[in-house]
């Protein structure tokens, strides 16, 4: 069993970049990232990416994300920058006190390459690259369809689109985190649950890297969970911060994949978990279920843009320390690997 | 129930009917106030660099005294602007407040600030963390109220961010759950209202925008309000403002809350949710949003009159307050003023029509006849 320290990405911008970018781009809806930013803006984002990668390396994380600093619209980003999508009104992001531009899909979701571009740059900075991608169910849920006409067709189109995007990822990508909060927040009903799993399968099958399907903000409905296990992903994520009991129940009752991701650090609270607390939470989960896991991704439950920069950095260091050899010499991780 | 409304009827009110006109609270800040704030912040920063932080900020060339004076001037200006628009109850447009949670968190012991977090795009908010049990330190709003009352000829309303929103929009490091934090904060709000009432305030509005996003927590907000209202004299009018959301999820439960008035955002949704409030009967006062706070276009007097008449489908005139949907701080100032002035003119026209019997009130009368 290997414990792998990582995060679901979506990092906060460093404070100086917050200022530099809002000066360069502006505060209005039309000023946000469109996919064809000016050279000045791109240069700031390149610097930010380097800074965020270095931060994760210093913290000792085992997987390193490019940070998604360009994702002004959080998980909706891959659509809001698409040529055939126009950014609509500012809408609420789940029940958070955050907002994003509603991506209104007005034409075919053709190949974009936006995510692959950022990952290509990041591949030059780290050997432990992890991609972060919105899952097809959540991305379709966050968007407005004015082209495909039918919910099932639209979700399938989003899945095909994402499959094309991940297929173009550089080989350096070791792991792909598919973030699926909508599977919890807006759970699919009968029939839709199976389609959601197929859509995730479509995306996961398009890439050689290990794929983690990571729902958060609670536990999946039993049926949704059962269907998700049919998808060809390498690991499923469990948000133990939001709901440890129901997540343990799902795994104990219905099993899971050979590997899991455990959300044990709260991405939405400034209280910093100590490395000991993080390890205890992982130990607790392993004690509750009969499984013998290959890999356990030890992660924050959500993206980290909710946090002020100082606490975000402390949480990265705590995660790195929780799986680091220095702090867990008597632990079985990486010893048997 | 004590009538808390009549005390706000102006002595020179022309019509027999009285539709209380007011605002939710925030108003666009004059551009010069933002400039003054920049000057003040630069000046303080320069001064502390020069003197290694040893010298008082007031020694800078736009220091503490000048900044206080600028805020006083802005508060006086906007209070008078509300009076010029003809509103029956005014506020200072929240000229002294930067943001609705930050402002209070800076004044409550137990909070700390760690830096800005994203709201959307490049808009950030200094979301505070509760790191210790919250407690009452300095007064939050008594100075603000006393100043506004001293420059106003009309009664002054005091908007206060509600404890549920103060809890929900903060990081919670210290309490077992958000609910217990909200209750402790509610006790502090109660303490502040007691001080405001002592200073003469008779109209308090609790703002709970967070309830719109988590309507299932209405019972927590109800318990908070019980704590807030405890021991407050009956003639003090307490309102609750809840921003746009799915009101069917909080109605009719909110009728049990110990408040006199609900201030609701309905113009924004074109009154599609109005029927939510028709059954069961709306037993509290309704502060109806009759102009949209998110559309930078002034509604005509006729349009606003039609909106006010929609309110009369839910409550009789004795229970109707006329107000904008929400705080108007994001509008251009002249648009905000135009909306206020038209809102007042429309209310007076509807009152005259009610006096002359030209309007049939669909809502049941308060006697339940």
Structure, described:
The complex is a heterodimer of chains A (337) and B (369). Helices cover 40% and strands 17% of the residues of chain A. Chain A is an alpha/beta fold. Chain A has a single domain (2-327), classed as TIM Barrel, CATH 3.20.20.210. In chain A, the strands form 2 sheets. An 8-stranded parallel β-sheet of chain A has the order 1-11-10-9-8-7-5-2. A 3-stranded mixed β-sheet of chain A has the order 3-4-6, covered by helices on one side. In chain A, β8 (210-214), α9 and β9 (235-239) form a beta-alpha-beta unit. In chain A, α5 (136-142) crosses α6 (151-167), α6 packs parallel to α8 (192-204) and α8 (192-204) runs parallel beside α9. The model of chain A is unreliable at 327-337 (pLDDT under 50). Chain B is of the alpha/beta class. Chain B has a single domain, classed as Alpha-Beta Barrel (TIM Barrel). Helix content of chain B is 36%, strand content 15%. Chain B has 10 helices and 12 strands. Chain B has helices at residues 31-50, 64-84, 102-105, 142-151, 163-168, 178-198, 210-213, 218-229, 301-311, 333-355, and strands spanning 20-21, 108-113, 117-120, 123-125, 128-136, 158-161, 171-172, 203-207, 237-242, 261-264, 285-289, 320-323. Chain B has a 7-stranded parallel β-sheet with strand order 1-12-11-10-9-8-6. The model of chain B has no long low-confidence stretch (mean pLDDT 93). The interface between A and B is medium-sized, with 34 and 21 residues.
Number of domains of chain B: 1
The first-level CATH class name of chain B: Alpha Beta
Biggest beta sheet summary of chain A: 8 strands, parallel
Walk across the major sheet of chain A and give the strand order. Answer: 1-11-10-9-8-7-5-2
Count of individual helical segments of chain B: 10
Q: Residue ranges of chain B: pLDDT <50 for 5 or more in a row? A: none
The secondary-structure element order of chain A is EHHEHEEHEHEHEHHEHEHEHEH
Q: What is the strand tally of chain A? A: 11
Biggest sheet of chain B, open or closed, and with what strands and sense?
A: 7 strands, parallel
First-residue to last-residue Cα separation of chain A: 6 Å
Tally of distinct domains of chain A: 1
**Cα-atom radius of gyration of chain A:** 19 Å
Number of strands of chain B: 12
- Share in helix of chain A: 25-40%
Rg of chain B: 21 Å
Largest interface: A-B, 34 and 21 residues
Taken from the alpha-carbon principal axes, the silhouette of chain A is: globular
Report the end-to-end length of chain B measured between terminal Cα atoms: 17 Å
